[in-house]
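Re: beginner question about structure tokens

> Can someone show what the tokenized structure looks like for a real chain? I only ever see the sequence side.

Sure, here's an example I had lying around. Input first:
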Amino acid sequence: MDNSQDRELPEVQEIKSDSPATPPVPAAPRITDLNNPEYYINRELSHLEFNTRVLEQALNEEHPLLERLRFLLIYSSNIDEFFEIRVAGLMQQIEFARAQVGLDGMGPQHVLKEISTRAKENVTRQYEILNNVLLPEMAKQNINFIRRKDLSEKQRAWVKRFFYNEVMPIISPIGLDPAHPFPRLANKLLCFIVSMEGKDAFGRETGMAIIPAPRSLPRVIKLPSEVCEDEGTNYIFLSSIIHLHMQDLFPGMTIKGCYQFRLTRNSDLDLEDEVEDLAKALQGELLSRRYGETVRLEVVDNCPQPLVDFLLDEFGLTNDELYRVDGPVNLTRMMSVCDADGIEDMNFPPFTPGYPKTMKGRRNKAANVLDVVKHSDILLHHPFESFTPVIDMLRQAAHDPNVLAIRQTLYRTGARSELVDALVEAARNGKEVTVVVEIRARFDEEENLALARRLQEAGAVVVYGVVGYKTHAKLMLIVRREGRSIQRYAHLGTGNYHAGNARLYTDYSLLTCDKDITNDVRKIFQQLTGMGKTVRVRKIFHAPFTLKKNLIELINREAANAKEGKPARIIMKMNALTESQMIKALYKAAQAGVEIDLVIRGICCLRPGVPGLSDNIKVRSVIGRFLEHTRVFYFENMGEFQVYCSSADGMNRNLDSRVETCFPIEETKLSARIKKELEYYLSDNTRSWQLETDGSYSQNKPTRGQRRRNAQRRLLENLATFTQ
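And the corresponding structure tokens:
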């Protein structure tokens, strides 16, 4: 149970002093050299710091127990991707002599050394938390992971049957000899290296074998209650079952040792801009993704050094890429435990997302979304508010005889998407449906190819965006005949059209029929699906053309206002900030006297608190129940404040090499609401972390006399309903 709701702490009396006031500290001299590497934080090390903050949640006793385990497993998943993409990229720079020095002045060799040191420290800490904190706490709650040496006779008999019925038929031990060279192992596959003595039936005496664990088998197996004496929930790892029956896999041989290991490979896809058929080229790349270049080797800590050296040599890795672990090498596969039935009290309390009153019709039923939006814009803040209105808008349009056309971008949608179902229905109902599917959405490529085929079979026009520019914008456009005129309706969002993500990620949705905005959306779709010069849009900022330029102009305007003594403030909330021109503009604005608050969930290359440079900049990161994903930009504008929401982060890739949108929230009531919700994050003192000048983070905690503030909890209480 999350019990961190706002509450009063004891007041503290003001302490008065008769000592003379401290003289004011003179202002630091203004820094002019904004290219000095000392003023920037390394991108990859900042990324690691974010994952460290995720790992720390596993120790936060205010989170329910299984949510703490979930955070530990999310850390594993995040680090896997970090190695598959970011570390792999650095290693490629070295391999192909294309070393790139970042804003911080660090080259790839230096960064990799630092990553190795810090990541190993975190991995050691991760397993210490698992073994010494979480597993004992779970055992107190009757959730047990039974070691093979502790199995009872009944359990041992059940495990033996499971091995012979489920494991033995599909497992393939591979003895190593000249006729059986070291197998090509897939990315992140659980494997075992076995040392043994003796001769086999053919007289071979190799002394070594490799066992890849089949991916089709669960890594955590629940023992049936009838073989357990207690009333708790008991699990055993697949690795323990295989260890226990190793002798059965090599009959007549003497097993000297069996040790888990796992290999991580480069999983980034590299497509040439000149390919003739993007979908066909991508399908070819997907076949090879599981066998990219090696970047990391994880081995259990009791594996003898000679075997470790053998594996390192086989994979072409060094000790810098070696990670010894005190437990299972594939922790992410424990996630099923967090979602098991009957343990809801050890998870976050369930809630029902809010549904705007303006969108409820007669007898509290959902109204026609288009009719509601016709009268006023609708702003939704997911997951605190339901994603259903977005789905309903499309579903109703699919059946509305007056709707003529639907256009939509899809980046990530999910395997079973109601939105895709609605698009298919619309196409079959004779609507002109055009969908821009970004098939290069990392790790969702195969699924998006399947979605594209399904849409095409229904009669929709499917395009794959623009080669060289990922389409990351979140746009939906509905064209409807109303009397003698044509009316357009649009949805613009900060997050993906993925109903599952809408329950886990914080994102804003805007539903509008504003003529300028919907016409801008029309022009952007026209540019994506057709050809022509850059389109002129009136209200939307749109990358890679105007988004960066306009944001920097708005930052500069605040700086000019501050220099003239006028009210000036900037609040930016993003997932990451790495783009050099934006950072330099923020530095200059801070020097001019603008108060700047940045809520950056993950990577931040800006260094706050540098005297004479970034004294006026505060950076915080919020890590809580939901993944912070909203991108919001607030500018004071001399009291006539402006608010924009965006699909883009402050990263080079978003601003220069992706199709992104940034849209204004113009209705005063809605923009004021977003400002208020931003202030929730700026006052959070239970789930937020402050970025220090040295690049480290310190957790914000309420001081004596302060109320406890939890931004996500406040939003849940304001917008949703707890169902427990």
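Each token stands for a local structural state, so reading them left to right follows the chain. Residues 391 and 419 are 6 Å apart (CA to CA).
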